[in-house]
Design a protein that fits this description.
binds 3-methylbut-3-enyl trihydrogen diphosphate, single chain, 7 helices, binds magnesium ion, two-stranded antiparallel sheet, about 15% strand
């Protein structure tokens, strides 16, 4: 019997004190936030970026080592071109406006997803931001851009093809995923009341505690994050043991 996966850990928690190393969030509900206010969807996405700032800061204050945010899925290209264009524009502006702050706050930015689909100038901007913060050793902020778990696993399979099958174990797969080197997800949160994973971190969340909250992403704040962490602390994690 081999237990080679990075996800295999002794049972922990349930006593109210455990805190997650890696929190991942499916930031959903921007469109509905706008719709309820009779605003264009882009207004929800803009407000969603404010929530990104708030929650990233709150996560740092809470000592969360890795925060992963799902910003644009590999399936989000199916949206109307004007919405996709708005989202690309917001990403560009976010990097331009926030990179200095992230860099000075010792945040290391990482991207998961396939950047080859983005416009060359946006891709260069994103890669420049990652390179600029690569030496930081505070919080790791991971952003999913054109990310889909199935696409990631397909790319990982391609990277492993041709290797001696006997050398391929869970750690070998881990090492060729976009998340290589990151700890597994401890707590996965989805906002907006939807109860699905939408192709997010299917491998990495193998033993994650999952929390679905009704708040729409633009309304999610530091207090909501704290409530999620308090909920996590009550969970007893077993990892298949007893
Ligand atoms: C999440 O909000 C942001 C992205 C997927 C880019 P949505 O845009 O999915 O908002 P709803 O689900 O339509 O409310
Ligand atoms: C998941 O939300 C993707 C992101 C939050 C980036 P979606 O709104 O795209 O998911 P579905 O389509 O409702 O499953
Ligand atoms: Mg949605």
């Amino acid at each position: 019997m081999t237990a080679a996966s990075a996800n295999v850990k002794p049972a922990t928690g349930g006593d109210g004190s455990a805190s997650p190393r890696h929190v991942a969030i499916i930031m959903d509900g921007n469109g509905r936030w706008a719709q309820r206010r009779h605003l264009p969807r882009v207004a929800g996405h803009r407000k969603g970026i404010e929530a990104v700032r708030t929650v990233t800061r709150a996560a740092r204050a809470q000592g969360i080592e890795v925060l992963t945010l799902y910003a644009f899925s590999s399936e989000n290209w199916r949206r109307p071109a004007d919405e996709v264009g708005d989202l690309m524009g917001l990403m560009r502006r976010f990097i331009q406006s926030d990179l200095d702050d992230l860099a000075s706050e010792n945040v290391r930015l990482r991207i998961i997803g396939d950047l080859s689909a983005f416009a060359p100038d946006l891709r260069a901007l994103i890669e420049g931001a990652v390179a600029r913060t690569a030496g930081n050793d505070g919080q790791t902020l991971v952003v999913g851009l054109n990310y889909g778990s199935q696409d990631e696993i397909v790319r990982a399979a391609r990277a492993l093809a041709g290797r001696d099958p006997a050398t391929i174990d869970a750690d070998a797969v881990d090492a060729v995923l976009d998340t290589a080197g990151l700890p597994p997800v401890d707590l996965l949160i989805r906002t907006s009341g939807e109860r699905r994973l939408s192709n997010f971190l299917l491998w990495q969340a193998a033993y994650a505690e999952i929390l679905f909250v009704d708040a729409l992403w633009p309304d999610f704040d530091g207090a909501a994050l704290k409530a999620a962490l308090d909920d996590f602390a009550t969970r007893e994690r077993r990892f298949g043991g007893r």
